[in-house]
């Protein structure tokens, strides 16, 4: 996957320091370690046997390390291994990632109550099962197997994990049989594999990226149609990070966006910026024309939106200056249009409102830049413009919300209706009024934090935008079937 190669390429810079084994295995020939068995388990099927790869101690370590690499610092709760070779990978990876391990088995093998799925294999049909309590609601999960062929087992497994409420942060496997189309079926997820076979022709991706220099890789992997939208919140009125900057006035069926739209490029990627409250910061949260802003992005063919939002912290461990890469919201707004579909009914799914692929990239990049960031968090969006009462703040804390702001809803909802991947980066400026500090709110202090946040977010955006390299995502598909 492009995501993986780019990520790997960037990691390579740090790898010598962080991973001593790396140099030793730079020329690991995975293909040579995999035994190919013609006509097994039936005539006409070429079987890719990874047991020989696992038996080689250097190759096995290499494979486990490489499969774990995209998930370092991602706080994975569980690695799900698929029967049977997937178990070997899952347990090794879970140990390395500090996660638990759970198994998906063929029918009839698990002793406790199970949930199950039927699927079609490359050469048979079958049923797989999982214990019904194997994954807890909202656990952070990766799914692992040795090989993806038609993708039936993997698709069935993702369905089981999601039925139990798990959040799939990635799918990893070693051998991708591209010509059987399985990886396409799961391309909405963050997919990472090590070697791909296309009709007997071998493309060893691990070799490819190690031999490519970074600029060439960026050129070839950033697809032309990718266009990034930035919605800049409070404190980002003067965002000046684009090359070849132009400003244009856009109108939409819902009226004008908050301000002139700025277009330009960051490292050769096309970028569009809209300042949410206008350059003059004179549009209050209730009056932002969210529909016009998102419509303008859609009109300009934006595929991904990164939004920034200044916020108050509702948790002790989210300190002023910290970033929270949101994954949930609670809506306490009252006056805002939340849909483009006037006169029709659009039940857009909202269980996972933000784009987990963007979230992953943003979080990883923040880590690389040593910006203090929390990989998930629930925003409570209030109508404003007033701040909360102490009673409200305590209530929101009792709901387990992490931060409080005034703009995430309906922006994220409209982006999903428009089929655009959307991720909000919340930047804490202060503790909301719940915290008994004895000090009164110091406006100078808040302004100072906002300025520091603006500097950090600029760095983060410049660094993360060239890494965005996927166009297929679940976010694009939810609108299909939502309108009745
Ligand atoms: Zn997405």
Notes on the protein architecture:
With 484 residues, the chain is an alpha/beta fold. The protein folds into two domains: 2-219, Rossmann fold, CATH 3.40.50; 227-476, Rossmann fold, CATH 3.40.50.1580. The protein has 15 helices and 21 strands. Strands 11, 12, 13, 14, 15, 16, 17, 18, 19, 20 and 21 form an eleven-stranded mixed beta sheet that branches. β9 and β10 form a beta hairpin. It is globular and about 70 Å long. Mean pLDDT is 85; it is low at 1-24 and 200-224. Residues 355, 357, 421, 473, 475 line the site of zinc ion.
Task: Give a short account of the largest sheet.
Answer: 11 strands, mixed
Q: What's the shape?
A: globular
User: Which CATH architecture of the largest domain?
Assistant: 3-Layer(aba) Sandwich
**Stretches where pLDDT falls below 50 for ≥5 residues?**
1-24, 200-224
Structural class: alpha/beta
Which ligands appear in the coordinates?
Answer: zinc ion
The CATH class of the largest domain, by name, is Alpha Beta
Which characteristics define this entry?
484 residues, alpha/beta, binds zinc ion, globular, disordered N terminus, eleven-stranded mixed beta sheet, Rossmann fold
Briefly, what is this?
With 484 residues, the protein is α/β, with parallel strands linked by helices. Helix content is 31%, strand content 27%.
Give the SSE layout.
Blueprint: H1 2-18, H2 21-24, H3 30-33, E1 35-38, E2 46-49, H4 51-55, H5 57-68, E3 78-82, H6 85-97, E4 100-106, E5 114-120, E6 125-131, E7 140-148, H7 152-163, E8 167-177, H8 182-185, E9 191-198, E10 201-203, H9 205-210, H10 214-221, E11 227-232, E12 243-248, E13 261-266, E14 269-275, H11 290-299, E15 304-313, E16 323-325, E17 328-332, H12 356-368, E18 373-374, E19 378-382, H13 390-398, E20 403-405, H14 408-417, E21 421-431, H15 443-464
Parallel strand pairs: 3-4, 3-7, 7-8, 8-9, 11-14, 11-15, 15-21, 16-18, 17-19, 19-20
Antiparallel strand pairs: 1-2, 4-6, 5-6, 9-10, 12-13, 13-14, 15-20, 16-21
The chain binds zinc ion.
Zinc ion is lined by residues 355, 357, 421, 473, 475.
């Amino acid at each position: 996957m492009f995501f993986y190669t780019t990520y790997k390429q960037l990691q390579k810079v740090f790898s010598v320091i962080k991973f001593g084994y790396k140099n030793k295995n730079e020329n690991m020939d995975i293909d040579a370690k995999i035994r190919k068995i013609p006509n097994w388990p039936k005539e006409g099927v070429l079987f890719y046997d990874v047991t020989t790869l696992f038996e080689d101690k250097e190759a096995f370590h290499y494979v486990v390390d490489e499969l774990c690499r995209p998930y370092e610092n991602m706080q994975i709760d569980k690695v799900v291994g698929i029967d049977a070779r997937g178990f070997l990978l899952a347990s090794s990876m879970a140990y390395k990632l500090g996660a638990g391990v759970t198994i998906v088995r063929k029918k009839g093998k698990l002793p406790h109550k199970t949930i199950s799925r039927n699927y079609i294999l490359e050469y048979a049909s079958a049923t797989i099962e999982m214990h019904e309590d194997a994954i807890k609601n909202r656990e952070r999960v990766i799914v692992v197997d040795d090989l993806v062929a038609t993708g039936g087992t993997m698709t069935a497994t993702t369905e089981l994990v999601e039925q139990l409420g798990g959040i799939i942060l990635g799918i990893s496997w070693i051998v991708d049989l591209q010509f059987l189309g399985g990886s396409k079926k799961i391309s909405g997820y963050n997919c990472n594999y090590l070697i791909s076979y296309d009709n007997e022709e071998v493309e060893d991706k691990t070799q490819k990226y190690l031999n490519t220099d970074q600029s060439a890789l960026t050129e070839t992997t950033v697809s032309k149609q990718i266009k990034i939208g930035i919605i800049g919140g409070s404190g980002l009125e003067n965002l000046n990070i684009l090359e070849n900057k132009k400003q244009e006035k856009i109108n939409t069926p819902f009226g004008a966006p908050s301000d002139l739209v700025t277009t330009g490029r960051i490292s050769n990627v096309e970028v569009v910026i809209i300042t949410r409250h206008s350059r003059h910061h004179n549009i209050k949260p209730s009056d932002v024309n969210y529909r016009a802003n998102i419509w303008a992005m859609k009109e300009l063919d934006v595929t991904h939106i990164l939004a920034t939002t200044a916020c108050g912290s509702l948790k002790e461990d989210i300190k002023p200056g910290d970033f929270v890469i949101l994954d949930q919201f609670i809506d306490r707004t009252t006056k805002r249009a939340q849909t483009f579909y006037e006169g029709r009914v659009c039940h857009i799914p909202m269980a996972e409102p933000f784009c987990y692929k963007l979230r992953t990239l943003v979080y990883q990049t923040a880590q690389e830049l040593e910006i203090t960031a929390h990989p998930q968090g629930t925003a409570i969006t209030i109508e404003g413009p007033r701040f909360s009462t102490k009673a409200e703040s305590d209530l929101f804390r009792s709901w387990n919300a992490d931060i409080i702001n005034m703009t995430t809803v309906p922006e994220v909802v409209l982006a999903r209706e428009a089929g655009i991947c959307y991720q909000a980066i919340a930047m804490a400026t202060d503790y909301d009024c719940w915290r008994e500090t004895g000090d009164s709110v110091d406006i100078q202090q808040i302004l100072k934090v906002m300025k520091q946040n603006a500097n950090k977010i600029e760095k983060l955006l410049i660094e993360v935008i060239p890494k965005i390299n996927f166009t297929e995502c679940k976010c694009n598909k939810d609108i299909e079937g939502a309108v009745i």
